[in-house]
Amino acid sequence: xxxxxxxxxxxxxxxxxxxxxxxxxxxxxxxxxxxxxxxxxxxxxxxxxxxxxxxxxxxxxxxxxxxxxxxxxxxxxxxxxxxxxxxxxxxxxxxxxxxxxxxxxxxxxxxxxxxxxxxxxxxxxxxxxxxxxxxxxxxxxxxxxxxxxxxxxxxxxxxxxxxxxxxxxxxxxxxxxxxxxxxxxxxxxxxxxxxxxxxxxxxxxxxxxxxxxxxxxxxxxxxxxxxxxxxxxxxxxxxxxxxxxxxxxxxxxxxxxxxxxxxxxxxxxxxxxxxxxxxxxxxxxxxxxxxxxxxxxxxxxxxxxxxxxxxxxxxxxxxxxxxxxxxxxxxxxxxxxxxxxxxxxxxxxxxxxxxxxxxxxxxxxxxxxxxxxxxxxxxxxxxxxxxxxxxxxxxxxxxxxxxxxxxxxxxxxxxxxxxxxxxx
Length: 424
Hints:
By secondary structure, the chain is an alpha/beta fold.
C-alpha cells in the first residue's frame, strides 16, 4: 500500500513564502508558470472544484483552504439525530484530496484582498492567487431572529451545520420525557436544503414513535408551501398520524423571537414552550464571502451563471450554497455540480478559451423512515442571467412501498457516490 505524505503547516508556510516571493515578478502566464487557483471552503462544492481543476489541468497550483481537518456531511445527518446512524459515517478526511496534488491549508481564511489577489490565513500566512473560488457554504444570520445568537445554539440547537450541533439535538431528544413537545422552527427561503426541515420532522417522529410515543412535533414555518410537500404530508398521515403538526406562514407559523432561557418560541399569533427546540435561523453566505466583497445586501453572492464569476469582485468565483443561483437549490448535489462546472470555466479562461454553457444535474433524496424515501431530480441551465429548471422529475405521490424502498436504496448509493467523488 502506498504511503501518502500530507502537507504540514511548515509546508503551507514554505509554499506561501515562495508564492509571495514570486508576487514581485510579472503575472504568470501559462507559458511562464503554472497559474495559482485557491479554493476557500472544503465542502462538497469546494472539494469537487479543487479536484476537477487538477483533473482538467494537472499543471495548476491548486490550494484548498479549509480550517477543519475532517468534513462532516449534512446529507443523512438527520438520521444521526434520529439515532439511525452514527456521526462517524458522516465524516471524511482530506487525505485523498491532498493525494491529488492539491495543497490543503488547514487554516481559516480571514481576509481577501481582491486588488492584490491575496488571502490572509488565521496564522498570518499570505497566499497569492490568479483565480479564487469561494465555496464557504452558509452562516447563521443571528441578527435576523431576536433572542437567538451563538450562545443560544447551546440550548436551542439549529443542527444546520453537521457536527456537534447534530449530536446535541440527538442528546436532547434522548433526554426528553415521553410526552414532550419538540418544536422545529423553519425560516423563510433561501435556506440550505429546503426540504431538510421536513425530513428532520419525519425522522424525529420515527424515533419518538418507537421510544416516546406520547410526544408530539410542532413545525413552525415561515413559508406557506415547500418542496415535495404532498409527499411529506402523505408519509406523515401514513406513518405518523397525529404526531406532526405544521403551522404555515399564513396560519401564524413565522417565528418572531425566542427565549433560550425558558425554551419559549414566539410567533405572530402565539407562544410555544418546547421540551426540545430546534431553531433553524435565517441564513446567509459564509462570512468570508462578505469579507471578500462578493456578497450583496441580501447576504448572498450574485454570480454569472455561465462561469460562476462574482458580479461584484474580479477574478473571484462563487459556488454552492453561498451563490445566488436562481432555480437550482442550495444542496450538496448542486454544489458539487457547480464546483465541476466552475473548474471547467476557470481552465478555459486561463487558456483564453470561451466558456461552455453548463448543464447541471442535481438530486435531492428525502428519507422519512427506514426503507421509505422519495426524491426530486433536475437539470438546470442558465437562462436570463440565472439558473432555471430545464427538466425536473419528482417521485409520484401514490407510489407503492417497494418504490419508496428502491429510492431509499438509491439515496444510500447517491451518498456513497457524491462523498467518494469529493473525498474518496
